[in-house]
Amino acid sequence: MLNFALCDDNLNVLRKLEKMLDSVFINHNIDAQIVCSTTNPEEVLNYVSRHKVHAVFLDIDLKSDMSGLDIANKIREKDKNMYIIFTTAHLEYGFVAYRYKTFDYLPKPITIERLEETVCRLVEDINGDETQFVRLDNNRTIIKQDTIQYIQKDGMKVIFHTDTRDYETYSSFKRILPQLPEQFIQCHKSYIVNVDKITNVEAGNNIIYLDHHLENKCYIGPKYKNQFMEVFNHGISSNNLDGIDNAE
């Protein structure tokens, strides 16, 4: 049984989060329970220090003398492994929150889809099935491999474009590529693509499409084109592929 604790200064938000979490537990057959749900920062801190808690959801701005960041700092002094998920309407806190070995950061208002993704990743990480995930640098955020459409390098940042959202981290392709299975191919100096997500390739225009609306796309670089097309055509096939357009 996994134990979850929640802390938010808004009682209505807290009750809504409880209901959504219970729904996720039921829909995904997750053996978990909410053991502490409070608007009082001292109460949640006292509870997690005395009881076994696997994950805690903390609102950052608690409108009290103690913020969610303060709680996280005190938790980390005693427990390096508890999963911390921050929730806030203030997006500027995002990068600060990851200092506390944060598993995820949920912007408010929290949607059931976003919460579901986070909880399922958390449970799978606890179960230790790391071969299906990519772990981002400098924090405990993990991404399920089969949700990644493509990976883009943008300056010092690397952006993981997934089915539901984008993740950013400071890393390099040199570090990321060894974590990836064979269906991920570097097709450009700035792009790594998941072949299983490709719906169409315009070889003449060096464009790879990753959805049927042709809005989500990445590109093929001259240096990588021959190798990409060879592997794509003969090494790995995509179940979603509509076709390859070789027209110039």
Helical content class? 25-40%
Average pLDDT value?
85
Which superfamily, in CATH terms, is the homologous superfamily of the largest domain? Response regulator
Number of domains: 2
Given the structure, what is the number of helices? 7
Give your account of this protein's structure.
The protein is an alpha/beta fold and 248 residues long. The chain has 2 domains: 2-128, Response regulator (Rossmann fold, 3-Layer(aba) Sandwich); 149-245, Beta Barrel (OB fold (Dihydrolipoamide Acetyltransferase, E2P)), CATH 2.40.50.1020. The protein is 30% helix and 29% strand. The chain has 7 helices and 16 strands. The protein has helices at residues 11-27, 41-50, 68-78, 94-97, 112-126, 173-176, 222-235; strands at 2-7, 32-38, 55-59, 83-88, 104-107, 133-135, 142-144, 148-154, 157-162, 166-170, 184-188, 191-194, 200-202, 207-209, 217-219, 243-245. The strands form 4 sheets. It has a 5-stranded parallel sheet, sandwiched between helices. The protein has a 5-stranded antiparallel sheet with strand order 10-9-8-12-11. The chain has a 4-stranded mixed sheet with strand order 15-14-13-16, with no helix packed on it. The relative contact order is 0.09. The model is unreliable at 237-244 (pLDDT under 50).
